[in-house]
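Can anyone check this?
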Amino acid sequence: MCAYGGVRAALASVLLFTFAGSVLAQEPPFPKRGPIEITVLFPAGSSADVAARLLADGMAKNLGQAVIVMNRPGAGGAIGYKYVGGQKPDGYSLVWNSNSISTTYHSGQLPFTYEAFDEVAQVLAETPVLAVPAASKYKTLADMIAAAKAQPKTITIANSGTGSHTHFTSVALFKAAGVEVIDVPFAAAQVIPSILGGQVDAGVQLPAALAGNVKAGQMRLLAAMTAKRDSAFPDVPTARELKLDVALELWRGIAVPKGTPKPVIAALEGAIRKTVTSKEFAEGSEKLGARPAFLSAADFAKVVAKEDADIAKLMVLLGMKKSS
C-alpha cells in the first residue's frame, strides 16, 4: 500500500508540474502591453476626433492598457487607411473607420477595398444635414430647390472635401431633386466658418460639427438625410419626408488589418461594447450630436459589405465612381 501510495504521489507531482509548466508557457491574454493606437482620419479637435477620444478613454478602462488617438488626416481618409492597412495584424493598430472606406475607394483615392480590414464593432451613427445661415433667404429645402431650378449652378453648397461623405450626400440630395448646384470642398474645419461667413449659400455637415451653432441660433437646418428623424434634431424633416429618396446615414466604427486573430478581435469588441453601452459614452455622444449604435463584429461586417455595394451603385449613377 505504501509503495502504491508513493507511486501515486509521484505521478500527481509530475502531472502538477507539467500543468504548471504549461500554464506558465501560455501567452498572456490580449492586450499584453500598451498603447493600443486608434488612427483618426481627421484633424485633432474635429468631431470625429473628439468621439474617438471618448471611445479610447472607455476602451482603456475596460482593457487595462493605454489606448491613444493618432490623427492622420488627408485624401478623404486614404492616408489613414493606408497607414493602418500596412500595420501588423496584432490588435495594436486600429482605424476609426466610416462609410469613407467605400467612398474613398470608389472615388479612386484608395488602392484597396474595405476587405483589407477586419471589422471589430460599429460604434456611432450620425445624420448628414443641410444647413444655412440663420439669415438665409432659404427657409425650406423646397425654397432652395425652386431657386436652383430657376437659376442652375448658382447656389453653392459646402462639404468636407472631395469624396467625403458630406460631398457624396450633397451630390445625391440635389441629384434626387433634379437640380444643379455648385459643390465647394473645404477642409473639415473650414466648412462652418464658410457658411456663417456667407462664402457659400449652405453646407452639408454632420450634427457634431454644427450643433452648437444651431442651438445658438446662428444656423437653420433644412433637411436631414436619414430614414427617420434624428433625435438630435427632431423638428428637422427628413429628405424622404420632402419626397426625395436620400437616406445616407454615416456610421463610425473600429476596424483592424486583415488577419488579426479572432480572440484579439473578440477582446476589442468586448471592450467597445462595454464602452458604447455606458452612461458616460451616451452622454458624451449626445453632446456631439451622435447616437451610440453598437454592432458586433459579425453584424458590422454585414453592414459594411452591403453599404459598399450600395455606395458603388450610387456613385456610378452620380458619375463619381472612378475605380474599377
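Reply from J.R.: I decoded it. Residues 56 and 226 are 27 Å apart (CA to CA).
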